[in-house]
Amino acid sequence: MFSTTTTKNVDPNRLRNTILVAVGSLVIVATYLYLVVGQPTEVAESSTSQASLIAIGGYVIGAILLAAGSIHRLPTATIAMIPVAIALNIVVGQIVAVLGLPVYIDSIGTVLVAALAGPAAGVVTGILTNVIWGLTLSPIALPFAVVQVIIGVMAGYAARMGMFRRFYLAPVAGFVTGIVAAVISAPISAFVFGGATGGGTGAIVGAFQAMGQSILGATTLQGLLSDPLDKAITFTIVVLILAALPNRFRQRFPFVRQYRVFGKAAPTVTSKSESAS
Amino acid sequence: MASTLYVDRESPVHRLNPVTKLVTLLTLIVVVFAIPFWWVAGIAVVAVIVPAAVVSGCGGRLAKLGFAILTPIILVLFIVQGLTFPGGKTALWEWGGIAITTEGLYFALGIGSRIICLVFASILFVLTTHPGDLLSALTERGMSPKFSYIISSTLQLIPAFQDRADGILLAQQARGLAIGKGLRGRVGAMMPLLAPLVLGMFTDVEERATAMEARGFGSTARRTALTPVPDTTAQRVFRWTMPVVAVAAIVLPIVTGAL
Fold first, then answer.
1. C-alpha A171: how far from its chain's center?
2. ipTM of predicted assembly, 2 dp
């Protein structure tokens, strides 16, 4: 699945890594399908179901398997870049929270690494962002690790498809990523947190429930309201940052060269980011 | 923001092997989430977390951090689910078109007790475990050293990153950047901050990668620990019994039909 990042290196554990990634993806998909198709009525009636254990366990195990299968494929240059990306996620996420903006913008680093070094790097950045967030600021972030993993995978494939070549394509890719992220994160909000992950979002979930939605339906709709916008903004910021990075730096990544992430010519720098740098 | 919450103290909880604490934390979470009664989480908090917090001497900080994180969540949970729970039938209190239902409050109690247990247990773990010890203990047990490098490197980077961000913001303000009023002004202030921040941090990466490669970072050979993390036989036995407890907690409600 992610076999593209190290084409030259002969990996002795290639089969094991592929199996880890495949099983991890399967576990995540199976968890989601079980929670959505398997028992929607039972959860609506009482809190005595084990849906929360399955949501938290399935997603965490799936994310860990994906990360374990991905990390061995990464060259040292990428590993050295990931801490910077994680710090970027966390610091910008904090600044946005302080500025009081109604979005999160906590995945700029994940998208940036995925665009430069591929989906496997995005996966590792995503999961470790939430692990470190859990270690430093709030354990609430830990169950949501799988969402950042999905963002990393989607951003990596968006880069492969050339979505970062044009400024107007990046928000589209972000919007699609946001939809997937909202759908995947909804069972965690619903079954682990009962829809109450924050003041504003909780009120929206309550409003949807009052309109007759189930808990899962209400958290999915709430996510679809905020996540696509949030990720569209994130992807736009990333494409602006990428345009401001020196071409020499960008072309050093094998992933960028192999899939021509930026096309033949680099995207032109807008007047806004030019004045910024 | 300090880069970790760890409180450096001498206590029996601090001296435990980090893996023992991690296994206990995971087992506690599995038990609380697997057995579908709210009082299980209550017992876990009273019988495990509170004594451990008292012994570790971190009770005050634990309470402060825990309540800061939990208060908004628990309040929203009870208000939202009490008023709008889809399965709510019996109205406990009614006024106009608004009704608080018993089912809603019961659902909120079930979810809320688990969240309280999850948050307090994880914060206590972070307060009493040095990230470096945890990472070396996990690397000894076969976790890729790349994970340890990324996590510990990030923990050191975050304060440096914030200093740099503050510096850039001050410099941009000195040359006339106004953090405008309203949404557009605030978003406008983001780009002049981000571009130099990212450029500066990412250009450092290149030299670091060369230095790491020269010291055999990419090698897949098994490492020897420079500072072995202390461990005891009692803890080893304890760690092997914990997964059994977790599996029992998952299987028992299904077998006895308590669901």
1. 15
2. 0.83
Are A106 and A96 within 8 A, CB to CB? yes
Task: Provide the chain A residues 215-274 that lie in CB contact (below 8 A) with chain B.
Answer: 215, 237, 240-241, 244-245, 249, 252, 272-273
Burial class (CB in 10 A: 0-12, 13-18, 19+), B43: middle
Quote the tokens at residue A81.
Answer: 């870049």
- Residues with Cβ within 8 Å of residue B50, at least 6 apart in sequence: B59
Q: Which of A45, A192, A206 sits opposite B83 (nearest CB)?
A: A206
Chain B residues with CB inside 8 Å of A94's CB?
1
pLDDT in tens, chain B (259 residues): 456 778 888 888 888 899 999 999 999 988 988 887 888 889 998 999 999 999 988 889 899 989 988 888 898 888 888 888 877 777 777 776 678 888 888 888 888 998 999 999 999 999 998 888 888 888 888 888 889 889 988 988 888 888 888 888 888 888 887 766 666 666 677 777 777 888 888 777 878 888 888 888 877 777 777 777 788 888 889 899 998 998 888 888 777 765 5
Amino acid identity for residue A199 in this structure: G
Which of A43, A46, A53, A142 is best to mutate for the B interface (most B CBs within 10 A)? A53
Entry pTM: 0.85
Residue A69's nearest CA partner among A135, A120, A122 is A120
Main-chain phi, psi angles of B58, to 5 degrees? -110, 15
SS3 B94: strand
Contacts of B209 in chain A (CB under 8 A): 76-77, 79-81
Identify whether the C-beta of residue A228 lies closer than 8 Å to the C-beta of residue A175: yes
